[in-house]
Amino acid sequence: MTVGIFILVLAGAGIFGYYFISAKPNGDSVISKDKDPQASVNASSSDASIDSSVKDNAIGYRTKENLPLFPSDYKVINSSKFIKDSTSPETKKRLEDRFNVVISDIDKTPDSVELWVSLGNIKKSFEDYEGARNAWEYASLIRPGGATSYVNLGDLYWHFLPNYPKAEFNYKKAIENSPQSIGIYKDLSDMYRYDYKEKSQMADDILFDGLSQNPNNVSILIWLAGYYRDTGNKTKAIEYFEKAFKIEPDNAAIKREIEDLK
User: Fold this and answer.
1) Fold (topology level) of 180-262
2) How far apart are CA 192 and CA 60, in angstroms?
């Protein structure tokens, strides 16, 4: 079968109001070129499956015995008809084979969050952004204490299905679940700074949140310094570059930044 694909950078979470069908549906996996408007007909909302049977532990999880209903489109890739057919047949075949393997593995181990994340990654490669969203939201539903699916959804809602409040929600959930993952603070800061104009003043606030969770982290100090340098606050830029340089006195790049600012 011929499917046009862009190989996209796979990036980086939980709004659960989408449609789901039986947890163990039958039928072969399908890769289609056009979106099926009937894909969610007669499906029930996942919200109905959120109940007290979820385990109360460090990361939260559902077992095979209490899984919510699967996304109705999980065995289908609705490839964007606008994709340029620029990918080699070998690459297409490899992605299609990987998709079928992941579907087979999910049927065997439906409570594996890694498989659902992988499924979303593959769907995103086909520019099936809604399908990727549904897979990652399902991953967030069965592992509400994880971070990867929320990060992926944050990136998706930032860049591909633009909805900045949803992107913010998912990035914040990822931070809540994994406060030592410093890159999430940078992603959210950049979204505030460059795109979510109503909250642009929070671009440095979220980096300070990251610094409070990761004291003296050189990367966050440099991000803060760079933010202040680029927004014209030379005094604060020097302050945070100097704090970073105090921790890494052999870092020539930081030294140059300080010299240039002075």
Assistant:
1) 1.25.40
2) 29
> For residue range 88-106, what is the model confidence (pLDDT) as tens digits?
778 778 888 999 999 999 9
Fold topology of 1-178: 1.25.40
Calculate helix-pair angle for 129-142, 113-125, nearest 10 degrees: 170
Q: Which residues pair with 71 in a beta bridge?
A: 20
Task: Look up residue 70 and give its amino acid.
Answer: F
Looking at mean pLDDT, say which of 9-13, 25-29, 142-146 comes out highest.
142-146
Q: Please answer whether residues 240 and 246 qualify as being in contact, where contact means their C-beta atoms are separated by less than 8 angstroms.
A: no
- Cα angle 26, 124, 219 (rounded to 5 degrees) comes to 135
- CA dihedral of 58, 63, 67, 71, whole degrees rounded to 10: 80
The SS3 call for residue 92 is: helix
Could you give the residue ranges of the DSSP H alpha helices within 109-251? 113-125, 129-142, 148-155, 164-177, 182-194, 203-213, 218-230, 234-247
Are the folds of 1-178 and 180-262 the same? Answer: yes
pLDDT, tens digit (0-9, with 9 covering 90-100), for 13-71: 333 333 233 333 334 455 444 333 223 222 222 222 222 233 333 345 566 678 999 99
Residue 216 burial by CB count (10 A; 0-12/13-18/19+): exposed, middle or buried?
A: exposed
What residue segments make up the domains of the chain, in order of their start? 1-178, 180-262
